[in-house]
Amino acid sequence: MLNLFYTAASWEVLDAGALEIMRERVLPEVREEVASCANRKNIIRRLAGEILLSVAVKQCWGLDRNSYRVLRGQGKPRLEGVTGIHFNISHSGDYVLCAVSDAEVGVDIERRGVARMNVACRFFHPREVCGLEGLPVEEQHTRFFDYWSVKEAYLKFKGTGLRQSLSSFWVEFAGTSVLLRENECLVPVHVQACCLDERYSCYVCSSLNEPVVIRRLDLIR
Question: Are 95 and 23 members of one domain?
């Protein structure tokens, strides 16, 4: 099972009433956590991620939010005392996503902009830099963020985050397939593009070879 729950909103114009509805949908400890945060956008994203996770776990496994705790700060976030449930959260721009699965999963979304070739030359694998340099400018912008999103999703899938160098592996786009290689060896993972919005790059990385089921949620209803 591989599901992607997401929500989208113009967070900057979200009114106080909507924000209060979101606060009421999370546990008290989460409300206490965000109360000390001064950045409104970060508060909203944190609440949105928590709500998406609780809805996903309820819909996919039938577990109520009060029946488990989310452990963070000790490596990859996980559900305490619960086996067979894996999740990963990402956000960018107007989107917040939560991927859930019964196997390891990683997800990343990036709002596209101008390709930062100085960043690519510093952090990407040389083969990726070469691939970018050979593209027309507009395609270069899109492919830069595709690379970045796939790389982030893979490192989150592994649970290493940026402790592992982005240049230690490379991404290959072969038609509709996305392949990963480390030390010339094909990595046994499955990477899928999730086309939520043409302005964004979004990819899910999983050990499961099955389609991602995408579900959009309205968090303030």
Answer: yes
